[in-house]
Amino acid sequence: MHRMKPVCVIVQQVYDIDVRVRRKVDALVSAGYSVDVLALRPPHGKKTYVLDGVNVHTVSLGKLRGSLARYVFEYAAFLVWTFVKLSILMRRRQYAVVEVNTLPDFLIFAAAPARWGGAKLILDMHEITPEFYISKYRASDASWLVRILKWQERISFNFADHVITINEPIQDLLSERGLSRSKSTVIMNAADESRFAMHSSPDGTDSPEAAKFVMMYHGTLTNIYGLDIAIEAFGQAHREMPGAELWILGSGPEAKLLQSLTERYRLGSKVRLLGEVLPTQIPGLLKQCTAGVLPIRRDVFLDFAFPNKLPELVIMGKPVIVSRLKAIRTYFSEAALAYFEPNSAQDLAKRMIDVYRDPGLRERLAQRAKFEYVGIRWDIMKDRYLALVDCLVTARSKEHRARSYRQDGRVA
Fold first, then answer.
1. Does 319 map to a domain?
2. What is the pLDDT of residue 65?
3. Residue 68 lies in a domain
């Protein structure tokens, strides 16, 4: 038992809104660990604050991004701040484990002061950097930039004591690049079912909006998530779907474009752009939909995507219409999800109509998806994560005792 051991978690994001990181930290706190977080400062937020028993230390550094130069500046600035802050905190906290969440991969080197003090380092690689930049900047896999990114990826996971990946296809990819499988663990991007327990139902038939046949997307409104494809598909299909509506929850840079597409296809009364909603509102809103829609584009990066939105819909008992992506297909069969060919509005329109017309299909999809989700649900991932942290704490304690013995002259 290693409870009350101090752990530090580092993420270049506003901690309050990073669902994946908060899920892991909540698990650590519930298991008795004392946790500090180093993160970006929320808008108008405090430099240091306590959130659900976690000490959060922040730096004011905007996420303007856009150009490669801006990415480099923000990454470097956060790395320097983290290095200094961790050096100070390590003197009094003596962390047993420090976990660094990407991007960037090389942020792991900010944890060097903790490693010098005996802490074990975890690198959570929930993005694959080379593919991310190939996708974002349309770079060639053979370009000098991508070669550099693969090199810094390799030296980063080599520096860590253990690496977390978010699905098996990414683990396979990193293994091909030199990451030892014995040094990596898959912690899926699963949803915390306790958030949805009071709202979940076996299907959408008890929804007050069920008569309308509501399809729903919830998340960030960016190009990669293909919401323009969804609106175009609905524009093609809606005449075959009397009473159907498409609800889009969230905010982002694509909001105005999506509104203009809605007007172009004359879907003003059928497509509802509801804007940003609080995380606490998501379960109740998902309960009102008949089916989820995840029209993610496919490219070398997005083929490895496993969105958190998918398990949330599965937990709520909703059939999901989703792009046929490599990572998702690894865990869900054709019998569990209503797959369509990525980037194809025509194929998505066909699947919308199929799901609309066949209540039996909706029920079969929802039930099969729940069955296939059982092995990767958060309870299993949480236990796997805590076992990993416990194992590293044990290893650190043994090494610390061994050093003490040598210093005392009791071991030659």
1. yes
2. 58
3. yes
Any idea which residue has 């069955």 for tokens? 371
pLDDT at residue 24, rounded to an integer: 96
Q: What is the pLDDT of residue 403?
A: 62
Count other Cβ atoms within 10 Å, centred on residue 271: 24
Residues of the chain with pLDDT under 50: 1, 202-210, 410-412
Closest of 375, 385, 327 to residue 162, by C-alpha: 385
Alpha-carbon gap, residue 276 to 407, rounded angstroms: 58
- Residue 1 in domain: no
Q: What is the pLDDT of residue 269?
A: 85
Amino acid at 284: G
Are 359 and 220 within one domain? yes
Residues 197, 330, single domain; the answer is yes
Spatial distance between the Cα atoms of 210 and 270, rounded to a whole number of angstroms? 14
Q: Distance (Å, rounded) from C-alpha 198 to C-alpha 244?
A: 26
Helix, coil or strand: residue 36? strand
Containing structural domain, residue 336: 193-373
Read off the amino acid at residue 49: Y
Confirm if 39 and 110 have CB atoms less than 8 A apart: no
**Helix (DSSP H) and strand (DSSP E) numbers for the chain:** 14, 14
Q: Can you give the pLDDT at residue 69?
A: 78
Q: Give dist(CA 100, CA 355) in Å, integer.
A: 41
> Which is it for strands 48-51 and 34-40: parallel, antiparallel or unpaired?
unpaired
pTM, two decimals, is 0.86
Predicted local distance difference test score (pLDDT) of residue 278: 81
Tokens encoding 198: 């009071």
Query: Do residues 7 and 97 make contact, with C-beta atoms less than 8 angstroms apart?
Result: yes
